[in-house]
Amino acid sequence: MLRKFTFLCCLVFFANQSKAQQYGLFNTKTMFDGFENTAQKTFVLDYSRQYASNFFLPNLTINANTDGNDQLFRLLARTGLSTTKDSLSQNKYLNMLLQSPNIYLFNYKIFKSYKYHKELGFSWQLRTDVEFNYNRESLDILDNYKTNPNYINIPLANSFNSFDRVQSYHQFSLSYRENYNKKLAFGAKISILSGILYNSLNLANTSFTFDPVQDEIRMALEGDFRTSFVEGSKLSNKSFLPSFKNPGLAISLGTTYTAKSGVFIMANIKDLGFIRWKETSLQQFDTPVRITSAAERDVAYLENRIAAEVANPKDDNTGFYSPTNARADFLISKSYGSYTPSLVLSKNLFFKGGDATLVNRFNFNNFSASINPSYNLANLFMLGAQGMYQTPNFEVYLGTNNAFNTIDQTKINKHNGAIGTGYNSFAVYAGIGIKFGYFVEHPQNSSYMPGLDEEETSFFRRLFSVFSKKK
Question: Is Signal found in the keyword set (predicted)?
Fold first, then answer.
């Protein structure tokens, strides 16, 4: 059942073509940078045109990491729902799988005003947040309990303990940024969410005992299972279309500061929000399971029995609120000619996970390349790489958050599952942006300037004036 639940969520992940953080794109003034880091500029005065869009050419992000048994996950990726028998040694089992797909289906930005450098943006994203945490022995027990002496007639406490959840949703956003003064800028993004699906499974205080004398298996299962769809048949292609049956809201806030010394600082709170799932089924269980004729049972039978006990949702139509995977980001950077190093610190607020990344970007006219070593709080060390071609009115980029492991995963095939070492990761992203319309020139150089209004005021100045003292 654990294997089936894992791959159900993985199939949802791949079916959506699906949020990883692309730290190499931070502080690049790309459209992705402007939407993810709301105070960032996207337009360059005197060079850029007034409008920017990806024209429904999706900015694709795919990210998945596993911590635990590398041999197991390569086997699963190579053969599908395979057994672990004869392929694993004891205490080398899948421990954690983190997936964060994010795809910008459409984005559009407008240069609104020369004064305060105001920018207004609209975007449509498809996002999935996935987290799996497994006991290292859970998969191997089901495959090898008959032959492994460590599993025979010995109570295995907490053998199936896990906490797993997946939620997928559409995100429609309105973003706005402006300069507060020459050094300081603020930005905000308000999002309406439309939930697609939600699943969570929590198993605690579990146990497994195989008694060959009595020819039976005794299991204890305690926990809860919640799902946004009662039967698998209800999950169809229509389920992935925006309907706002499961509505939600989220907000992002950001600021940037540029010092006289050239030091650039950026801070963000991203996608802080929730989704209300209108109809969910919650099953709570504390169930002893007894299986007779254990020697004759295969793995599929055991998994189906467990699934029947812990994943048997009821049509009780209970409402439920779930948080989005909000993050707090901080960046500090300074350019030295063609070389720009940036230190990025990022932490999930409600989910597990966080990163510390050093982005090393090298600029060559309109081309740039970056090497980005990163440490993840799941004890994963990664080395990202990115290439970009960027002009004031066009950008295209391709990168990965984990260059070596991503290359290893692409080499896995039916004949060789032993390629690569350590943990597993597959992380790629790509995007394109095009600007069009009038040039956003300085008013002294142009007869036309969008948003040129001597009476225009700053939104954030008016907002912060509430806290100023009246004279």
Answer: yes
pLDDT attached to residue 281: 80
Tell me the Cα Rg of the chain.
Answer: 25
pLDDT of residue 190: 98
* HSE-CB for 155 with a 13 A CA cutoff: 7
Report whether 314 contacts 281 (CB < 8 A).
yes
Q: How far apart are CA 143 and CA 82, in angstroms?
A: 10
Residues 6 or more apart whose CB falls under 8 angstroms from that of 134 comprise: 2, 68, 93, 94, 95, 96, 97, 162, 164
Bigger pLDDT: 88 vs 262: 262
> How far apart are the C-alpha atoms of 133 and 182, rounded to whole Å?
47
Helix 2-15 crosses helix 299-310 at what angle (to 10 degrees)?
80
Residues 263, 287 contacting (CB under 8 angstroms):
no
Q: How far apart are CA 464 and CA 436, in angstroms?
A: 34
- HSE of 406, CA atoms in CB hemisphere, 13 A: 16
Among 466, 405, 401, 452, residue whose Cα is nearest residue 428 = 401
Q: Write out the two tokens for 217.
A: 């298996």
- Widest CA span of the chain, in angstroms? 93
Q: Give the range with max mean pLDDT: 16-25, 83-92, 124-133.
A: 124-133
**Taking residues 345-362, what's their average pLDDT?**
92
- Closest by CA to 76, choosing from 61, 66, 62, is 66
Contact criterion met (CB below 8 Å) for 433 and 54 = yes
Q: What is the pTM for the complete model shown?
A: 0.80
| H or E element, residue 139 | helix 138-144
User: Is the C-alpha dihedral spanning 43, 46, 52, 58 positive or negative?
Assistant: negative
Q: Whole-angstrom Cα distance, residue 408 to residue 119?
A: 41
* β-strand partners of 175: 121, 189
Q: Collect all residues with Cβ–Cβ distance below 8 Å to 147 and sequence separation of at least 6.
A: none
Q: What is the pLDDT of residues 215-274, one digit of tens each?
A: 898 988 888 888 887 655 466 677 788 888 899 999 999 999 999 999 999 999 999 999
In whole angstroms, what is the distance from residue 280 CA to residue 272 CA?
22
CA distance 220 to 342: 50
